Amino acid sequence: MRLLLATALVTFSLAAFGDTVVDTMDSRGEISRISIKGDWARFEGTDGGKDGYMLVELKGARFFAIAPAERTIIEFSAQREKKKSEQQKVEAELKEAGDGPEVAGYATRKYEWTANGESCGSILLSRQAAGIGDIGRLLAALGGLNPDTFIPEEMRQGFRAHRDPCETARIQLGDEKISKLGFPMKILDPKGKTINEVVSIDTRPKLDGKLFELPEDYSRTTVKEMMEGMRKEMESARDKIEQMMKDMSPEERAQMQQMMKQFGNMPK
Q: What is the rounded CA–CA span in Å between residue 143 and residue 146?
């Protein structure tokens, strides 16, 4: 009895003070990982962050893209408030479609979403998974943010113009509904093919705090500063770009003109 009691206490302690690791798999079979410890989350791919990773300060909703090759930290800032002109770009709708299957051991509800009346597929959400403390904090930090607010104002119009309506609908619904209904466990396209799926949620590990530290010896910049640097580089290469465009096909020239327009450096 004492042994059983001691084992139960140890198990409870691990569950109560463990961190959280969520692994997801995309349609190509590639695994991405979200690691959460206290007020920080880390997003990385199969390389373990060697090619770059994202750190998120959950309490302050601050985002940092770390680029090891360039030894650079790019800080993102976003506002929860959105201008009225930016709020509704498509007619987005989310419909409940009953219980879904268990995903990674968690119960789900199925929802179907549409953009301008066209099917975009379905998503399986789990309130059970959202009830995990670390995941709940992650949803609270990310749920009310509009991805467009990370993009400099002069580039937003070009990005929105070329965005798939279903992606716009997912962003709108994410802001308004999805994050309140549960944690996304599986996303399927209109034909039922899996786009992304949670394959495991582990609430037992004790993660190394160094994984969530910003490298002190890296240079720091912001998205605005980075885009300004890119714009200056493009301006210095303006003559070469204009000469190159003369040798392009009409379709290639139109694509280049659109890209240049997004950067505010449209050749005459």
A: 8
